[in-house]
Input
Amino acid sequence: MGHLPNYRQPSPYGTELFSATNAHKAWKKRLHDCVSGACSTLDPDTIALDNRCDLGKWLYRIRESRPALSTDTQRLFTRLFEEHAAFHRVAADVARQALANQRQEALQQLQGGGEYARISNQVIGTLGELYLKRREFGMD
Output
């Protein structure tokens, strides 16, 4: 079985894939700050790009390298890839709403029942499941 590129190589997340969870949790605070009026440095079009963050770069490298993975791990990887892309689209929508002074709509997205909260929780859950398969990724 082939090994995936090691996530630790270029990653500022530290030594574990699982720590990517913290980076995605941090987006909620950044977006909440944006909704509160501190949004001048966030560009929705850039946020929408799922291949610019470290996790996205890693996901794209894995997809391009086509490593040999168990069927279960491949399913998890594909699910994370899709959820991560959706996360970026929804996060960009929240930033757009905030910039358009649609603060109530943006806050609803960030709260428990909103689309942002739903997809964010899915990404975090799938990261956790994939972390359990980390040996297939050549990680300790």
